[in-house]
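Sanity check

After download, print the first record. It should look like this:
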Amino acid sequence: MAAITAADVNKLRTMTGAGMMDCKKALTEADGDFEAARDLLRKQGQKIADKRAENETSEGFVAVNVSEDGTTGKLVALACETESVAKVANFRELVQRILDAAVRTNAGTKEDLLATKEADGLSVQEHITDLMGKIGEKLDVTYATLTAEKVASYIHSDNKKGVLVGLKNVGDADTTTVGRDVAMQIVAMKPVAVDKDGVDSAVVEREIEIGKEQARAEGKPEAMLEKIAQGKLNKFYKDNTLLNQEFVKDGSLTIAQLLDKTSKGMTVTDFKRVAIGA
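Expected structure tokens:
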């Protein structure tokens, strides 16, 4: 059995960021073999991931990057179980590491991002699993990417909600303010689609049926139900599709009118809204 010194423990702690006792235990089990000890610590993280798979992750941190030319945005949300973990340095550093990997590789999907290899040979997923072993909590990643003529972004003050929004027909307009305003609108008002054409057909059918049932319960004639339901559906579009929503900062304008007022023909092509715990 190899003698495990304080220097050995400190070396492994520096290499992995794991706690002193965890490092000592891993080195003891590995008989002083540092690589084997690192593997043991990694397996510990996987055990925690498996054990806590059903736990709720309602805290965390959102980070965003928009390319210098303003045409591509990346958004990463790393969720954890407790607020205290979301505030520690190595958690925030991991969020930035994941975002940097997304930007560096232009990852198209979450799966691509998690499989990305870092300079140390470990994948993004392995780094996440390692941190789970250190903090003892479940971690969960959400990833969004968006490309457009111009991409705007916004992160809410609680750092748990973020938005990317794509704009087109911007012309020579400075989109800094309007882009931020529209992104803030998306965070606050949670639209389900850009416009009514983007609403899932199943949602439309459900809203029509709900409208009919409400009208029927109010004693309206059967012949009037379809027309009443269509009216309620139009109200649903107004409340729940971005371009038709009233601008929260100025109720006299819809978002479509706000954009057109800023630059003739400007509109939204797509948006990505990510919220931790909501």
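If your output differs, re-run the checksum step. Summary of this record's structure: Residues 55-147 form a domain with the Tetrahydropterin Synthase; Chain A fold (CATH 3.30.479.20).
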